[in-house]
Amino acid sequence: MELKGCLVLAALLLPAALAFPIQDDYENSTTTTEPTEVTTQENIYESPSPTETDEEDEDIFNKILKVNKDSSQFLQEGDIVPRRSRSAINCRQCNWPQSSDGIVRIPYELDPAYEESHVKGIHDAMAEFEALTCINFVKRKAERDYLSIRSADGCWSNYGRVGGGQTVSVMKGGCMWKGVIQHELEHALGFLHEHSRSDRDKHVKIMWEYISPPDRPDFKKFENSNNLDLPYDYSSVMHYGPYTFSNTTGKATIVPIPDRSVHIGQRQGMSNLDVAKINKLYNCSRCSTILDGPSGSLRSANYPRNYSDNTNCVWLIRTRSRKVSLHFQAFQLQITKGCQGDYVKVYDGSSKSSPVLMDKTCGSKIPNGIVASSNLMLVEFTTDGAQTASGFQATFTAVRTQRRSSIHN
Ligand SMILES: *[C@@H]1O[C@H](CO)[C@@H](O)[C@H](O)[C@H]1NC(C)=O
Ligand SMILES: *[C@@H]1O[C@H](CO)[C@@H](O)[C@H](O)[C@H]1NC(C)=O
Ligand SMILES: *[C@@H]1O[C@H](CO)[C@@H](O)[C@H](O)[C@H]1NC(C)=O
Ligand SMILES: *[C@@H]1O[C@H](CO)[C@@H](O)[C@H](O)[C@H]1NC(C)=O
Ligand SMILES: [Zn+2]
Questions:
Q1: Residue 378 CA to ligand 3 centre (angstroms)
Q2: pLDDT for res 174
Q3: How far does residue 146's CA lie from ligand 2's centre (Å)?
Q4: Which residues is 94 bridged to in the sheet?
Q5: What is the mean pLDDT of the segment spanning 206-210?
Q6: Taking the model in full, what pTM does it have?
Q7: How far apart are CA 404 and CA 254, in angstroms?
Q8: What ligand 2 atom has the least distance to the C-alpha of 248?
Q9: Segment 101-128, tens digit of pLDDT
Q10: What region holds the Peptidase M12A domain (predicted)?
């Protein structure tokens, strides 16, 4: 206890960017992963199309490592700032505290060097945490512990809460992708890379013959990782791509087993398992689902049987490009004045602070089709404690637009 206190204090006094030699210093750590609270919903959705952006993902991932190669920051596994002491390993005190209202508020400051588009990119990446989990990133007032999000040299982060102001480096040039920003923020929440899990050898084969000796520690397995009783997640935003740190062109260093064609290393944004894992680690009860196929459908719980009272669920529709188009096939909600009781509300973006596309809607008239202005749409379904009905069912597709959507997604 005494020792722990000292180390925490030491952590507070040390500047965030100190470099330390590689050591096995976050042993009992947390890795990723599947919907738990989420599965109470009978949502149906398609998995991402495997062919659509493999090239793009690979490009982006290699860019991160290339960017970080020139970084003066000493990094483990490509983008994690090593911990200073073994004591913080178990990371009980490394988690960010939860307020009595169940929200985990993480204060942050942004580098004044960011331009408007960068700020928007970072806010968009943060908004998904807020919509899908109980993590809220809030502008720092005077809090002691906070994230200092800076355009430093590369894309990197500390693992877990360190104490004081801790840097999350999101470099302007190379790191401005939603998935990359979320990846670094997840490190700060206390998550490691998915392929570092204790059970990874059942899911991927590490091809040591294509990994040069200095890069081998980047593929370390954490025998004591806290896997949260959730499955291994190939589609985690915390999973490396197949060619990470390969020293031979065209030879993969991480091969999914038994099916080597399974896609790994996406940077589109958090997966459903990433969300479930955050909600489990931080003890949040959230009903949220990501729908990231090129098309799919969603429906209220139990449909076509009646939905339950006192629920609040969101669906984040995130197609890879184009604009999200939503069509309701069925709609039957309790009618209240101003639809203050049960309602469906649709937002043009990934959070409840995004512009409203369809305001609170109830009753039994099927709403008109809705098209978002981008590849993101959030559907909210809230019910009160009085009276239920059969609910709704809808389908979505990505519709062609004049211009290709930006890389910021
Ligand atoms: C790490 O996990 C091992 C095995 O579960 C346990 O024996 C050890 O006490 C843990 N270490 C810390 C620092 O919590
Ligand atoms: C690649 O890594 C392997 C295994 O560490 C090593 O034997 C080999 O010489 C390396 N090849 C190159 C081109 O560096
Ligand atoms: C998680 O939440 C439940 C219910 O609110 C509470 O009983 C429990 O103590 C919480 N656990 C932790 C680790 O905060
Ligand atoms: C189901 O909803 C309908 C309204 O659509 C309502 O009349 C009926 O009472 C509900 N059934 C139950 C069991 O709540
Ligand atoms: Zn990382």
A1: 28
A2: 81
A3: 41
A4: none
A5: 96
A6: 0.79
A7: 31
A8: 13
A9: 999 999 999 999 999 999 999 999 999 9
A10: 87-285
